[in-house]
Write a structure and sequence with these properties.
Blueprint (H helix, E strand, L loop, with lengths): L1 H25 L7 H8 L3 H13 L3 E3 L5 E3 L1 H24 L4 H11 L5 H16 L7 H11 L4 H11 L1
Antiparallel strand pairs: 1-2
């Protein structure tokens, strides 16, 4: 049963990518076509077609005869969840960790399939916290950036830890 679950999960990761791609392309208010998905995910058209076949068997997409692709309500739910994970991770890497946008996007894309719900929730909470709770003028992201650039915390952090240590 373990092997089956692994295979299922692997399939799920790429399937999630397809659902996410449909959701993102559809967001531009157009009908979604196989060729667009193929370009977006950098996969060949036949691969897209066979993935869509699997997804429609799982009742996550409707592949209409003119080649228009629609998410079913269930597919929409899954895609929404993937997008939420993707956005949260991208923001975490870009804002909290100061990683460039392109790398942040690529890493989010890989990690969004394997991160546990708990870790994802914590990432989201962490971002919300540092956005809502700047610690004085030199808030957390600024202090962290300083630490990354200089290899040591800024003065005001060091003073606090010396005082606290006595």
């Amino acid at each position: 049963a373990m092997v089956k679950q692994e295979a299922q999960r692997e399939q799920t990761a790429s399937m999630e990518d397809y659902l996410e791609a449909v959701a993102m392309l559809r967001g531009k208010g157009k009908v979604v076509r196989v060729s667009q998905i193929s370009r977006k995910l950098k996969v060949k058209m036949p691969s897209v077609t066979s993935a869509l076949k699997k997804l429609s068997e799982q009742e996550l997409v409707e592949h209409e005869r003119y080649g228009h692709i629609k998410l079913t309500p269930e597919g929409d739910k899954v895609a929404g969840e993937v997008l939420r994970r993707h956005k949260a991770l991208t923001r975490f890497f870009a804002q909290a960790l100061g990683i460039n946008r392109k790398t942040a996007e690529e890493d989010a894309c890989k990690i969004e399939h394997v991160i546990s719900p708990l870790s994802l929730e914590r990432v989201i909470k962490f971002i919300e916290f540092i956005e809502a709770c700047p610690l004085g003028e030199a808030n957390f992201p600024k202090r962290y950036k300083y630490y990354l650039e200089h290899g040591q915390p800024p003065e005001e952090c060091l003073e606090r830890s010396v005082r606290g240590g006595k």
